[in-house]
Amino acid sequence: MNPTIGWIRQLAESWGVPAVLVPLVPFLLLLIALYAVIGLAAYGAKRKWPRADKTIAFWLFISPWLIGFAVFTVGPMVSSIYVSLTSWDLITAPKFVGLANYSEAFQDPRVAQALKVTLLYAVISVPLQTALAFLVALLLNADLPGMRFFRTVWYLPSLVSGVAQMVLFLWVFNPQYGLANDVLSKLGIDGPGWFNDASWALPTVILMSLWTVGGAMVIYLAGLKDVPTNLYEAAALDGAGPVRTFWHVTLPQLSPIILFNALTGIIGSLQIFTQGFIANGGPKDSLLFFVYYLYDNAFQNFRMGYASALAWILFVVIVALTAVTARGSAFAVYYETELSGRRRRLRRK
Amino acid sequence: MAVLAASRPVVAAYRADRPFWRRNLPLTIILHVVLALGSLVFVYPFLWMIATSLRSLAGVGSSGASVWPREFLWDNYTRAVTSFPFWRYTLNSLLTTLIPIIGTVFSCALAGFAFARLRVRFTGVVFAVVLATMLLPGQVTMVPQFMLFNNLGMVDTLYPLILPAFFGSPFYIFLFRQFFSRMPSELADAAVVDGCGWFRMFLLVYVPLARPAVVAVSILLFMGYWNNFLGPAIYINSDKWKTLPLALAGFQSVNGTDTPLLMATSVLITLPCLVIFFVAQKHLTNGITFTGGK
Lengths: 349, 294
Known about the structure:
By secondary structure, chain A is mostly helical.
């Protein structure tokens, strides 16, 4: 703890602030001081430039985000660069070690394993999830009776998330008593060891992730309902059948939504943590997801410097994979704005 | 092919004045069978969870894939609530869910309004920065943020799970901006003519009209905060401040063999999300229409 903060806390305690609220006092004081400065600056600016009230209001309105961005994002990122160049256990003073953490990370076989597991998970599960969610959305968009019921049923599993989901699936895929192997044995198949088998653990997590496609599915469903009907009318008048209508109307119209979902899906899947944590990294590190290994280094072994270096490696991987997806799909995505831009240009002529 | 034909909306050009299922009954039946089978696969683990939570330990070993509990041991739920400080953890979970919802909704609505209605010189640039941070993985700042809260003396309290919510979140800022942009700007003009300040206009004119967005965002946030696991796993050490997911994870590693108890606890943790989903289903679908990313 910072000595000044400690002093403020002692002061707060002696003033009879309840123990639960004591940690909050220094933070609140800092925030109040900050807003006092901001308020004074805004007041001064308003007196000096009375016509700029909109500008002042804008900056005041976004000030919570701006402060958060500085305090919880930019500041930590900058300090993270420094910490990644040190050896630090949080107790003794950080020791500068140069790029040693990075060279260690590149030689650490567990880092390679963590990268492999995480990338495999992202590269396999995201396309599968996207395809399944889209297919289900198409199915559920059909003009048939009873669709509301089916939509609810398909969305329901998405509500069981995180730890509860993993706890449930550890039992669903229990080799002896689990649901999966019991069903398989009734079909005459000898089920695998699932989470207990190093070569099956990752496929099992991927399979499990398909259970919660409902979240993406409802977004596609909303997108399908948003496609302008006149496009379908035009396609029908031109004699397009269902398949051509799908390729030339439905898919292009939904492509921005698909890209958006795929991007957030990739970022989310690279951050997978809970499954690795509950499974303790899985047999033979088969579920050693990168964030779990990072967490293990930082908060179990207290190797802050090494963990920061790992965080930067993860950052580079995420940015690279996002950029590849965004660039690679640029040709396939249709944006409404392109059209309106063209229209505007035409109108000007 | 069949799917595509059925999911194509009915437009004048090929409408035969009858719903699809009257026009093409065989296809309708096939689609329904596919849907029913798929739904069964999807909902089965869910039903199995509930069934298992009502069985005895011996029953779990012998019932396999059956989803009919046969025995109804409600006692499992009593045990789930009493065998660990369940209500204390529920309180912690509620504190780290409801307060952050208020904080996020307020800060994001404020920023979203500014980006939508207060177009000034740098609005576009700053908004681009907001969107860029959406791609930034939280894990990069995980370690230094921990050091920040450590410096503030807040490790092993609920504050690190609550306070950051008051400083906006790019995704929800984006949602609120989309929502406010769709509202007529005449409202703002009228309020300005009436001599209303920007903040009062936001609070008295725009927020009441943004009720659907606020409800939808709150529901989405509830699901996220209620199930948050990484945050508590980093910051909470002592039993007193554990949230439900963290407690369940610890429970799993200690009582890993008491399946009915684990399932009962899982059902209890999922229950609030289920209730909210069924109560607010309509609002949620409303919200999703502007989540689309267009």
